[in-house]
Amino acid sequence: MLEFKERLKVYMVKAAREAKAFTNWLSPSPEYESALISFLDSILKDSPQNRFLRELTWFQRRVAYYGALNALGQVLLKITSPGVPDFYQGTELWDFSLVDPDNRRPVDFVKRVEFLDDLIQQEVSGQHSLVQQLLNSWKDGRVKLYLTYKTLNVRRFYRELFSDGDYIPLQVLGQRQEHICAFGRRKGEMWTLVVVPRLLTKLVRVGTLPLGRRVWGDDLIILPEGVLEHWLNTLTGETTRLSSYARREMRLSSVLNIFPVALMMSI
To answer: How far is the C-alpha of 256 from the C-alpha of 227, rounded, in Å?
Structure first.
């Protein structure tokens, strides 16, 4: 907490100076900046009388869960959407850096290499058990590292699909259609399907993953003509097939069954 307070103070002074309302870089106001720092000390003071900190902590815990799920969706969209994905140093795990100079702190790459090596070893024993473990311990950030590692490898293996493939928005039918972003990428006979949930605060409670038929019911993704019947979920190892090949339908509950985002490859 002490380290966070000091980082926040540096950030707030920088932000205030760049706003140029009461202080700035050329003519800093020591009185204003001192008052600003005192204000931060008061609202972050750990005491029974500090109602603000109690409510902030409660709100942070609630928002963090949805933030983690949204972050997984953003990672998948970034890597699979048209264009070149860009990664900032250290963001393989959860990253809570503020703007510079806070985001220029040294990155513990040794820790990230160790995490990745361990994930690769555990994956040999089965993706299903590994995914369950990562979701149960989502706070340590390894689930984000796993998603990044798996999706980047798919992108590398199917390089032409992601660099030159068509981008095809997909329709979702059902009561929860507003809660899904889905699109396909196509290059010749090669297809991939990307599925990411959205607006999660309206969909599930804190601690509940947006998975399975209990959440998605009988909602369907409608696929274009020419797709194959059988698909592999590259993030979980699950295989699935179109629920109705004649109408090219796939159940959301089978796509988002054990992991909250999906990257499907036609097989």
So the answer is: 19
